[in-house]
Amino acid sequence: MNETEKTLLQLTGRALFSTPTDFDPAKVDWASLYQEATNQAVSLLIWDALSDKERALIPDDIAHHWEQDSFRHIMSNEQLLYEQEQVLQAFKEASIPCAILKGSSSAACYPQPSLRVMGDIDILVKPEQQMRAVEALQANGYGDILDEAHHCHMTIHKDSFTVEVHKEPNGMFMNMDAEIGEKLHGFFADAVDRRQIVNGLPFLSDEQQAVVLILHKLEHFMTSGLGLRQLCDWAVFVNARMDEELWEKLRPQLEEFGLLTFTGLMTRVCVDYLGLPEEKAPWAMQYNNETAERVIEQILKEGNFGKKADRYGERLFNDPNSSNRVTSLFKVLGNACREHWPPCEKHAILMPVAPFVLLGRYMIQRRRGERPKLSLKKKYQQAGYDQKLYKELKPFITE
To answer: Which residues, 6 or more positions from 54, have their beta carbon under 8 angstroms from its beta carbon?
Structure first.
């Protein structure tokens, strides 16, 4: 971990939990810090955390860009929140109950919610009402569905806004065994009915929100890359919501889903590197601090959604529950076929041709510029180190 990364983590802790910092502002490489904060999607949070004296030390051109970026993020958040109100109103008029996933529900746990940069609008509805929800949005100016084959959500656009209409949270089929998958389905079956209203907005129950956040972290950590912003979401959730009563309810469920070790290690990272008060999560301190160090190094190396590292296709070879990278390839590819070409789930005879269907779909998307170039040999080599780390996280492994 270099000095810029250490300074970034200290300032993140200051922004989230008012933790003391001990870096020398005169020695900070402000250009590198600004770039790193941008890569991790926390530049707005860090800019707000800087004192006037620290800002005065930033070169004028960097300070100008940073301040302008911060202003754009704030304006974008305001526009997104307004659009979210229109989406919720459309669902209300169509009598479609729903709950917000991530986004503003995560922002609500921040000391200043407006400093959490938001992207898409993610809304959970009951599976049988997913298509009605999409039609309600189309009646309000949204266009065609972009990814009908996705097993969790349908994506739809209007101008610069993207709405993902979920029938279940992301991460539900990420190489887990069928029994755990069924347990998670059961856990979220009543999610919309159990929603809570917070400041006029429909959020998941704290219990279900915690599992959604963990699934989201796990999916990105093992695929595109987990950024500091997503780690901040978990840190502030634990700080704001995770009391002893909630943890006692949540712990056995995480054990049942095979998510306890991953949750413990992610929380240990938040305590060790983001300033989350240890008394908020004493149960996390039993987890290996060396593994936590490797986790934060991975996060810093990759950036938000893998912005700093090309990991596209790497997940084919790094399934932690496979004995090696070759068996991982066959397992992950089989799961991908069932997830992204649904007929395979019902008709096993189609499995031999399914990889060619996905390859053809990838080639079309590649020509459109929607997918990056894929080098299987390079990804095979890169996945070796990651697979060892993922085994220590024990995702979807019950103990």
So the answer is: 25, 28
Tens-place pLDDT, residues 183-227: 888 899 999 999 999 888 999 999 999 999 999 888 888 776 788
Q: Is 184 exposed, middle or buried (0-12, 13-18, 19+ CB in 10 A)?
A: buried
Reduced to 3 states (helix: H, G, I; strand: E, B; else coil), residue 352 is: coil
pTM: 0.82
Q: What is the pLDDT of residue 399?
A: 67
Residues 393-399, mean pLDDT to the nearest whole number: 78
Residue with tokens 């994506």: 155
HEC per residue, 56-106: HCCCHHHHHHHHHHHHHHHHHHHHHHHHHHHHHHHHHHCCCCEEEECHHHH
Q: What share of the chain is helix, strand, coil (3-state, %, to 5)?
A: 60, 5, 30
- If you ran DSSP here, which 8-state letter would residue 140 be given? T
Give how far the C-alpha of residue 16 lies from the chain's centroid of Cα atoms, to the nearest Å.
Answer: 18
Per the structure block, which two tokens stand in for 370? 């929607």
DSSP label at residue 2: -
Mean pLDDT within 51-70: 95
Return the number of other C-beta atoms located less than 10 Å from residue 177's C-beta.
12
- The total of other beta-carbon atoms located within 10 Å of residue 95's CB is 9
What distance in Å separates the CA atoms of residue 339 and residue 31, rounded to the nearest whole number?
42
Among 266, 235, 199, smallest CA distance to 15 is for: 235
Query: Does 309 score more than 70 pLDDT?
Result: no
Q: Checking phi first, is residue 171 left (phi over 0); if not, alpha (psi -120 to 50) or beta?
A: left
Q: Minimal CA–CA distance to 70: which of 53, 37, 47, 103?
A: 47
Residue closest to 264 by CA, chosen among 218, 203, 330: 218
Return the minimum-mean-pLDDT range out of 68-77, 306-315, 335-344.
Answer: 306-315
Confirm if 58 and 30 have CB atoms less than 8 A apart: yes
* Location of structure tokens 């190396």: 301
